[in-house]
Inverse folding.
């Protein structure tokens, strides 16, 4: 089965790694057909194992090799298609749109945080198919109240986010 591992915190805040090195860690951990998509930690691979088992194997391998506490979220090709096909916002060049990959139920936590946060004009959030999506005007991502929430240490093992266009690129790589 084909999967994508969405790594959290890669190439930000001093956690720098080359995707070729990450791919080698995946290969050494027994994954097949390993390749990366962008430098933000999206690793496409195949395996006969289930996603929960893969998460444990790969977090341990990544933590050991790179000497950091690794968090990643493994999604099948079918689940990645849902991430891409469920985007609730119309494409607009003045906005960034993000989809969140994480543990079950994290979408409700995110929506609660979003509703409590001050919002920029036209900043929106929606949950579709148990996936949280966020639209924010370009240039406001890191300055937005909700954007700051995403850096909370309490959430680091629960989610990661990607620009929704990343899901399309991952699917193309999956074939």
């Amino acid at each position: 089965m084909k999967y994508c591992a969405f790594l959290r915190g890669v190439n930000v805040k001093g956690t720098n790694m080359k995707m070729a090195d990450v791919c080698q860690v995946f290969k050494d951990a027994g994954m097949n057909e390993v390749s990366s998509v962008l430098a933000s930690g999206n690793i496409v691979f195949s395996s006969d194992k289930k996603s929960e088992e893969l998460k444990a194997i790969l977090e341990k391998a990544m933590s050991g090799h790179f000497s950091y506490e690794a968090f990643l979220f493994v999604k099948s090709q079918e689940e990645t298609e849902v991430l891409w096909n469920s985007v609730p916002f119309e494409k607009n060049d003045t906005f960034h749109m993000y989809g969140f990959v994480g543990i079950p139920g994290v979408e409700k936590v995110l929506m609660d945080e979003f509703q409590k946060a001050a919002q920029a004009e036209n900043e929106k959030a929606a949950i579709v198919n148990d996936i949280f999506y966020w639209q924010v005007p370009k240039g406001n991502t890191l300055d937005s109240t909700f954007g700051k929430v995403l850096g909370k240490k309490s959430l680091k093992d629960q989610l990661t986010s990607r620009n929704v266009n990343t899901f399309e690129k991952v699917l193309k790589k999956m074939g």
Observations:
- Strands lie at 2-7, 32-36, 42-46, 72-76, 95-102, 124-128, 131-137, 159-163.
- The CA atoms of residues 26 and 122 lie 40 Å apart.
- The chain is about 35% helix and 25% strand.
- The radius of gyration is 16 Å.
